[in-house]
């Protein structure tokens, strides 16, 4: 049934704006702030778009909640308040002490939808994780994409099921005790379907790795910042999401006294009080600046947590021996570098970075910042998908080595994160895929990808074409692997480690000053002190005898045969790890 509805859009650039609702065009009136408004009869699912100046092709609403015909088509009204939530008992959960599971909706299941993903939530509950982190789901052009080419930040991609399916997914997660973190991209817009510059000055004069930067501090930037922050609040308030992962915040150029991230953190904290549950902001930042997660009262930006790529790089190079590109410093440092990261979160803490050819980072004050503020992982979407052939680390390491990696991640003083399928050593790759309908853009994307890796010595023939539908299909998880070896055994390792983490407060202790690491680079072993527990790792291909600082009395967990204990001496089998209680 139709009823009067106010349509409003911020568009200071055009001289004339009209709104088309269900095929009928209506004039709009402009106020002094550049907002255009019109009251029009519309149904709850009316299709609409905006006509700018003399252009007779309607553009989608910059704040569109639904795009049933794609990002070039008309917007469709969607009222998020119409959904009947069943998560009334959900009071949220803090990030501290939690474990995050990173998921791409399109490749998590064969169907690639949010509703299909609901059917797999039981697996995550049995695994023992606490948060599902969804890669971006906002509107992008085409049928499949990583999500980082989004152009309509307020919409949920229709192929995933649209906003109603998104609410069902979050609701189902909450009812099964899982929090939801949504990955959002505020540092750039995708290359196709971006009509925002026709409405308002969304772009800054400079550019970043992915295209034009966002106008956060230039003329007319107040409302651009509002567009960003309102989007963040939308996910948390209307969609009941528990946290946001903020993509590449180092690319958010903002010279104002109050950075947009600090302003966002302030408003999210207010919303948290209003909704009565913890709300989390997690940054992806390569700045290695602890001020990002330092509370505002102590002069920081005040975000909840951030990814620690240094942890990944150090662990990856230690396990694989890779030392090219940005792995060089970590490979040179060896196990000593991993020990540094385990006790201080950052490797580049003001140290020389050969990849950047300059000093980089700042030390973490471990006396004031807890370890849970840093996410630790062996794999993530970037570190897999941005490899030339999108190969997971399971394509390189043995099951025994994968179990070692899992042990170091899940017993760390940080917030552990797993990438979908990692828990069973998935054999499927996760490659870079796109589906740009425009032939020229598709060709440019493919050629750019191949050329990028050719510069690093890769054979162009082995680099997958991101536009090839098979690249997307290959990247879908194969769920039949769970019941086959060695996958079943590795899944059991992850479940046991996550259960151990929940059962022993020493493994949840985020005090970085209490973490000590003993190691021997030559014999390739290390021992991590976690309260009364010792996490011992043998990276060598033969047994190693490790002298602990105190007597061990019980093996709580082992990736292989049980190690032999003789007082304070433990003998570990080759390529194995164990968690010991001591006295």
Automatic annotation (TrEMBL):
CDD domains: AmyAc_GTHase, E_set_MTHase_like_N. Residues 80-449 form the Glycosyl hydrolase family 13 catalytic domain. Pathway: Glycan biosynthesis; trehalose biosynthesis. InterPro entries: DUF3459, GH, GH13_cat_dom, Ig-like_fold, Ig_E-set, Trehalose_TreZ, Trehalose_TreZ_E-set_sf. It comes from the Bacteria. Gene3D superfamilies: E-set domains of sugar-utilizing enzymes, Glycosidases, Immunoglobulins. The keyword Cytoplasm applies. Residues 47-77 are annotated as: Disordered. Its EC number is 3.2.1.141. Keywords: Carbohydrate metabolism, Cytoplasm, Glycosidase, Hydrolase. It is found in: Cytoplasm. Its main location: cytoplasm. Pfam families: Alpha-amylase, DUF3459. It catalyses: hydrolysis of (1->4)-alpha-D-glucosidic linkage in 4-alpha-D-[(1->4)-alpha-D-glucanosyl]n trehalose to yield trehalose and (1->4)-alpha-D-glucan. SUPFAM superfamilies: (Trans)glycosidases (SSF51445), E set domains (SSF81296). Belongs to the glycosyl hydrolase 13 family. This is Malto-oligosyltrehalose trehalohydrolase. The lineage of its organism: Bacteria, Bacillati, Actinomycetota, Actinomycetes, Geodermatophilales.
